[in-house]
Amino acid sequence: MELLTAVLGGVLGTFTQNLMYMAAFAVVFSALTIFDSQACNPGKPWWKGRDLVTDILFSVAYEFINPLLRIIAITMFMVILFGLSGGADVTQFFQEGHGPLSSAPFWAQVAFYLLASDLLLYGSHRLFHGRRLWAFHAVHHSPVDLDWTASYRTHPINRLFGPTSVTLIMMMLGVPPAVMTFLVPFDLIMGAWVHSNLNWTLGPLKYVIATPVFHRWHHTGIDEGGEKNFAPTFAFIDVLFGTFYMPEGKLPSNYGVDDKNYPTDILNQMIVPFIKFRNSFKPKKKKAVVAEGPDTPAGGA
After folding, report:
1. Which of 5, 122, 210, 222 has its CA 20 to 30 A from that of 234?
2. What's the burial of 210, exposed, middle or buried (CB within 10 Å: 0-12/13-18/19+)?
């Protein structure tokens, strides 16, 4: 009963805190994007987006479900790998961690986490752009009116084998949960920032850190920047791997997936990816070829 109370209290606390961040994002990005000189795609405020309702539902579901999954995963991780059971052991783990990096200074752990997690997320992001896993990642790419609200739209499978897996790897290396908790505001702000409808590139810093224009190109079609700009935070990772894309004098404008029938509601965006994932293993049907005979004109009947 005490564990259940603690879990529900943690979920409620996280939900309340993130509602405050969402309210702040709404105010800040509303104030900035009403000016055509600052908007990447003028005349498209976030509150008029065609995807707003689904984005809001994703944000609510994410805030309720993700804390539960994270707490359960961390608890299982501690119990199974470290054999922790006592309250003192658990507290020490959260504050100090266990592993090769657990004795490093706090700010060194923060720096390591920021860089290493971004490299791992870059790799997992590219994997989710492959044929098999794209079905799940397409959910995040489905908004046609892209704005900061889309930062919450992620399929649970994508989140499980992306951020959640990276978190567990970081803990195995000794980065304590206290560091990750410290960086939660940064992660929320960065996610909203790169999806916002702003035309900011930060000049030469565009090669260092992800910007709205940098990530909005990633949400365009594969014939533009859809297979570029994978790094969540540090653009220089894309520069190093040859996937950086920010053409001079041009801004992204067309977003979404290359499927006019792709579902727009949250329920089908949860279910359809599993169907598409299963279908990705089926052999493609070959088109029938009509044999040309003496009485058959060239090109078919």
Report:
1. 222
2. buried
- pLDDT tens by residue, 191-226: 989 999 999 999 999 999 999 999 999 999 988 989
Angstrom distances, CA of residue 220 to CA of 145, 174, 226: 11, 37, 5
Give me 248's structure tokens: 């001079």
Q: Is residue 170 within 8 Å of 117, Cβ to Cβ?
A: yes
Q: Report the distance separating Cα 54 and Cα 219, nearest Å.
A: 17
* Residues 198, 206: Cα–Cα separation, whole Å: 14
Residue 238 and residue 231 in contact, taking contact as beta carbons nearer than 8 Å: yes
166: nearest Cα among 130, 134, 127, 138: 127
The three-point CA angle 20-184-5 to 5° equals 75
Q: What is the pLDDT of residues 27-77, one digit of tens each?
A: 777 777 777 888 898 888 777 778 888 888 888 777 656 655 665 666 666
pTM of the model: 0.83
Would you say 40 and 216 are in contact if contact means Cβ atoms under 8 Å apart? Answer: yes
Residue 70 to residue 65: CA distance in whole angstroms: 9
Beta-bridged to residue 198, according to DSSP, are 39
CB 210 within 8 A of CB 157: no
Q: Which residues pair with 39 in a beta bridge?
A: 198
CA distance 76 to 98: 14
In whole angstroms, what is the distance from residue 261 CA to residue 272 CA? 11
Burial profile 17-49: b = 16 or more Cβ within 10 angstroms, e = fewer: ebeeebeebeeebeeebeeeebbbbeebebeeb
Measuring CA to CA, how many Å separate 264 from each of 37, 143, 156, 175? Answer: 30, 8, 16, 38
Query: How many CB atoms within 10 Å of residue 65?
Result: 13
